[in-house]
């Protein structure tokens, strides 16, 4: 029997096969959230020039992990007024 916490997990069958009759010891979604926040914190401290370089890489289709792209977009939303030039370039 699959654990109840696994039944609606978006990673079930993709990155995780779920657990059966085990105590909960960690969930891939929780681990992803922690990794995502670490990436956001890393990008948040980037200068405007460094963020522009990331924006250009993403826009030309460079090899960027989806989590980096998502974190970059979150930081752009958070630091909108401070990174307006980057924001306008990225979303133009």
Q: Quick one: biggest sheet?
A: none
The number of E-state strands comes to 0
Number of helical regions: 5
Q: Helices and strands, in N-to-C order?
A: HHHHH
**How much beta, percentage-wise?**
under 5%
**Average residue-wise pLDDT:** 82
Structural class: mainly alpha
- Percent range of helical residues: 55-70%
Distance from first to last alpha carbon: 50 Å
- Low-confidence segments, given as residue ranges, are none
Radius of gyration: 17 Å
Overall body shape? elongated
What would your notes on this structure say?
The protein has helices at 4-7, 28-44, 48-59, 66-78, 84-91. It is mainly α. It starts with a helix and ends with a helix.
Topology overview:
Layout: H1 4-7, H2 28-44, H3 48-59, H4 66-78, H5 84-91
């Amino acid at each position: 029997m699959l654990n109840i916490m696994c039944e609606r997990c978006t990673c079930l069958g993709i990155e995780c096969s779920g657990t059966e009759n085990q105590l909960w010891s960690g969930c891939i979604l929780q681990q992803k959230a922690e990794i995502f926040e670490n990436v956001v914190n890393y990008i948040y401290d980037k200068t405007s020039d460094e963020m522009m370089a990331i924006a250009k890489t993403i826009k030309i289709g460079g090899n960027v992990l989806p989590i980096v792209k998502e974190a970059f977009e979150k930081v752009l939303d958070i630091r909108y007024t401070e990174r307006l030039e980057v924001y306008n370039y990225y979303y133009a």
